[in-house]
Specification:
49% of the residues lie in helices and 4% in strands. With 527 residues, the protein is mainly alpha-helical. Strands 1-2 form a two-stranded antiparallel sheet. The protein has a two-stranded antiparallel ribbon with strand order 3-4. The protein is globular. 51% of the residues are buried.
Length: 527
């Protein structure tokens, strides 16, 4: 097995869907040891178990993202080469393994919670609600990478009493997983409006909650905003479109009962408070800036759009190359590799702003931001025929996005990239009214929304960025075709399953093997 996570009082391990017999025996402790932990401690351990895949880190960016999702959406520039659209085997396996380690922690939490008396389960109900919302958020990421995954019966080795023979997990349909999560989140939305958290429980919950620090208001907004994201994701699926429209309308039509993220003060983040706790973004620099690997170059399409429209985010998100002072130039994805190499070596191309992003050790881990949510709201209203409300959400999304990047720059203690002139409300207003951005001046409203969302997500939320690009196919991007890899000549529609899953969970893998190709679209990918 690849990784071991020892969290507080209980050790739980990774590849629950596919471990070999010998790995099961070595990996799992005596299930009775679960009883030595508490709901509070197990909740905290569970919430931290995937933090390195939320807060920017070396491994996630260098191994998992640099040559895959960041390229598939052209949020970075790179030098074209053979095999560039093939998902990195080590990265694919790593992300998969981490998800199942995370799922294992959730199962352990469920078991600890279930062992409490009925009275204590009622008293500590908020822990189960919060844990499950967070679990669903990360599960959506895994489903959106692969499609069907082992889920409802995965991670059950401890609940199954250590019996590995009955713990190999079958695959759940992606549609079924989404439906289960949407049902659960809908129930939590209502339950959070009526839950009464004991003062003593609230104090401990605040101390253990690394996401919202015990804020009931933010957990409500997180739950409803996550629902909006998931409902938007499936809104084009014929079997789910009616549900998506109805539930999104209900959420947006009753802000008092179903509040969502509207300003940056609502953002759902894992904040960095210490550089010695292990919760920091120090690894982002080596993850994208490693010499010779070129993971932080700007892409031409995004830079050209920013240049043409005088985007106030450009100077805080990017910095000119040393070979083109004062000028932002992105790497052309259609250029010959020798031309790309010459420009890169000469320092012509812009970089992602190192002081704002890759060398900002205080950059938070992003789960959901107001800007992203407002773009989902804008899309809903536009499709519903309410252009006035759509425009308001679109413009609010832009405003929140611009302000977000200046706010995270203010956290940085690095000045490698030099000072940045602050933005102003007037500058943002001019940008919103400009010809290429104006809601009223452009006929293709979905193109406007999708492009702003793409700019906002950029390298900071690559998993969501790739999902949204595949769903909408917007903004329109052109890719160099890699003819050396006929089955991967262009960016894939999904990540295939890792090789060790096929080897170790063979019987269950056989049920999905026919669809395990890079070109197999996910159920919500209907455009």
């Amino acid at each position: 097995m690849k990784k071991i996570f020892i969290i507080l009082a209980v050790a739980v391990f990774g590849i629950l869907s596919s471990c070999k017999k010998s790995e099961f025996a070595a990996a799992y402790p005596d299930p009775s040891k679960i009883a030595t932990t508490t709901v509070e401690k197990q909740f905290a351990g569970f919430m931290q178990s995937n933090a390195a895949y939320i807060v920017p880190s070396y491994w996630n960016y260098f191994v998992d993202l640099r040559t895959s999702l960041l390229n598939y959406t052209q949020v970075i520039g790179w030098i074209n080469g053979s095999g560039q659209y093939v998902a990195p085997a080590s990265g694919n396996s790593d992300v998969w393994s981490n998800y199942y380690s995370f799922l294992a922690q959730y199962r352990a939490f469920q078991q600890v919670f279930a062992a409490q008396s009925q009275a204590d389960q009622t008293l500590k109900r908020i822990y189960m609600i919060a844990a499950t919302i967070y679990f669903y958020d990360y599960t959506e990421r895994s489903v959106d990478l692969h499609g069907d995954i082992p889920w409802s019966k995965a991670g059950m080795i401890i609940p199954n009493g250590g019996n590995y023979g009955v713990s190999y997990a079958p695959y759940d349909k992606a549609t079924d997983i989404y439906t289960t999560m949407l049902d659960g989140l809908k129930g939590f939305s209502d339950e959070l409006n009526s839950i009464n958290v004991d003062a003593g429980v609230q104090t401990l919950f605040h101390n253990q909650d690394i996401v919202n620090y015990g804020s009931m208001s933010l957990w409500k907004k997180y739950c409803n905003s996550l629902r909006l994201r998931m409902l938007t994701r499936v809104s084009g699926v014929s079997a789910l479109s009616s549900r998506a429209s109805s539930e999104m309308g209900a959420i947006l039509g009753n802000a008092s009962s179903y509040p969502i993220l509207t300003t940056n003060s609502d953002n759902i983040l894992i904040n960095v408070y210490s550089q010695t706790s292990g919760f920091n973004s120090q690894g982002w620099q080596s993850g994208l800036e490693s010499a010779g690997w070129g993971g932080n170059y700007a892409g031409k399409t995004m830079i050209d759009h920013m240049n043409a429209n005088k985007d106030p985010r450009e100077r805080v998100m990017f910095e000119p190359g040393v070979g083109s002072p004062g000028i932002y130039i992105g790497v052309d994805p259609l250029a010959n590799s020798s031309v790309q190499t010459t420009m890169v070596n000469a320092g012509i191309n812009a970089l992602y702003n190192r002081s704002t992003l890759t060398r900002n050790w205080w950059f938070p881990g992003i789960l959901l931001t107001a800007a992203e949510v407002q773009f989902y709201v804008a899309e809903y209203y536009q499709k519903a025929g309410n252009s006035v409300a759509a425009q308001a959400a679109y413009e609010n999304g832009i405003t929140q996005s611009v302000n977000f990047f200046y706010s995270v720059r203010a956290l940085s203690q690095d000045n490698t990239s030099g000072s940045v002139t602050p933005t102003t409300p007037a500058e943002i207003a001019i940008y919103i009214a400009s010809s290429g951005i104006s809601w009223t001046a452009n006929a293709s409203k979905l193109q406007l929304i999708a492009t702003q969302k793409w700019i906002h997500l950029n390298i900071c939320e690559p998993y969501e960025g790739w999902a949204e690009y595949r769903r909408l196919k917007l903004p329109a991007l052109s890719f160099w075709a890699d003819t050396s890899k006929p089955n991967n000549s262009l960016p894939p529609a999904r990540w295939i399953y890792p090789a060790d899953e096929e080897a170790n969970n063979a019987a269950n893998y056989a049920t999905v093997s026919a669809q395990d190709t890079p070109g197999t679209k996910l159920f919500w990918d209907v455009n």
